[in-house]
Design a protein that fits this description.
The protein is α/β, with parallel strands linked by helices. It has one domain: Maf protein, CATH 3.90.950. Helices cover about 40% and strands about 25% of the residues. Strands 1, 2, 3, 4, 5, 6 and 7 form a seven-stranded mixed β-sheet that branches. The protein is globular, with a radius of gyration of 17 Å.
């Protein structure tokens, strides 16, 4: 069974490929900032924002692809139950890393599978990460190694690359932190195929 991945994330595609889940990529092109701002204005917390974004992406692509399973995903950083957005500039990235510095935060990864324009399954994983106590020089040194395009697309740290060195500890599934709780997806798809 070939699913549709409603995301242009190369990391998510690689996780599916590495786990032998055949997929076709059809990005949802949802305006995430618009959705986030609307939800925040209604008092939504980061968990609800992550779940809603995964569902919206999945359903949008599902509406145009009848009888196919469509996987939508979203990951957000929650610091003291407040949403930390992806940076829009390198300066914003520095500000975010200073906020996360020497503190615990959660990375929330939500996935939704839809069929015929309706959600049929969803799952959310919450991981806890504690960043080391880094000097500004160490943070700037880290940022100098990351391409701007990568930084703005994927957020302030890529756990699968240089970002791993920022942390004192990580509690959670590494695939989930990279953007997809793939074990749960595999379990669901296996049940679906029976």
């Amino acid at each position: 069974m070939k699913i549709i991945l409603a995301s242009k994330s190369g990391v998510r595609k690689k996780i599916l490929d590495d786990n032998k889940i055949a997929c076709e990529v059809i990005p949802s092109n949802v305006d995430e900032d618009e959705v986030k701002n609307s939800l925040i204005s209604e008092g939504a917390d980061p968990l609800l924002i992550s779940k809603n974004l995964a569902e919206i992406k999945s359903i949008k692509v599902s509406n145009k692809n009848p009888d196919r399973l469509v996987l939508g995903a979203d990951s957000v950083i929650s610091l003291d139950n407040k949403l930390i957005n992806k940076p829009k500039t390198r300066e914003e990235a520095l500000t975010i890393l200073k906020k996360l510095n020497n503190s615990k935060h959660n990375l929330i990864s939500s996935v939704t599978i839809s069929k015929n324009g309706a959600m049929i399954w969803n799952h959310t994983d919450i991981s806890e990460l504690k960043m080391k106590n880094l000097s500004e020089k160490e943070i700037l040194n880290y940022l100098s190694k990351i391409e701007t395009k990568t930084l703005l697309s994927y957020g302030v740290y890529q756990i699968e690359a240089e970002g791993l060195h920022l942390f004192e500890y990580i509690k959670g599934d590494i695939n989930s932190i990279m953007g997809l709780p793939v074990k749960n997806i595999i379990n669901y798809i296996n049940q679906f195929e029976k």
